Amino acid sequence: MSEPGGLAGRRILVTGAGSGIGRAAARLFRDRGADLVLAGRHLEALRETLPDALWMPLDHADDAAVAAFAQDCPALDGMFLAAGALVTGSVATTPLTDFDAMLAANLRGPWLLAHHLGPKLREGASVVLVGSNIALRAIPDSAAYSVAKAGVHMLAKVLALEWAPRGIRCNAIAPGPVHTAMVDARLATSTDPEGDLANLAKVNPLRRLGQEAEVAALAAHLLSNESAWTTGTVIPIDGGADAVY
Description:
By secondary structure, this protein is of the alpha/beta class.
């Protein structure tokens, strides 16, 4: 019997692999047999993730850069597009520059990668986009980020339709708050880190933050043939928050 979520022999592109969920996913994919291409602006961080992987420089929101990247990128069996950024604020208080930055980092980037790298995907490939559970339900001070991530969810559905004739699947995952280094950095500047952590955790029925490895495991399943009949979906992974709020 094959290992659950086995990725042996599959070449997978990972963006955002220099930290957080992207880094955890890249390491899990390698453990499950994948041949990885890691792309991003900070090559040293990618080297720290997996020293023996193929690293390629990339600003995924730059059309010319992604077009050039696509020329050099080898054929792919999958993509996990985890790169993104977060700026909080309401519609009233968010400057246009922040809104544009959120669209570029979180939506324009995945769109450009799909546009330029679609021809590089082999028949039967699988693509996983990283959305957010706050694109499934509105919360305060997420005006630009949640709108961009909602676009990611729809992009996954559109790509699932466009790529279906080639046997290529596309899904999105929608994580809730995950315990990453970014969260730790935020708590380190807080006057009440324990209280802030509790507030983050209490919004879901399981009353805890997610772990990077848990999100990575879902991505590995969607990239493997064990999810061969799953496409065009947006899957919350948020401790049940989307089910009850």
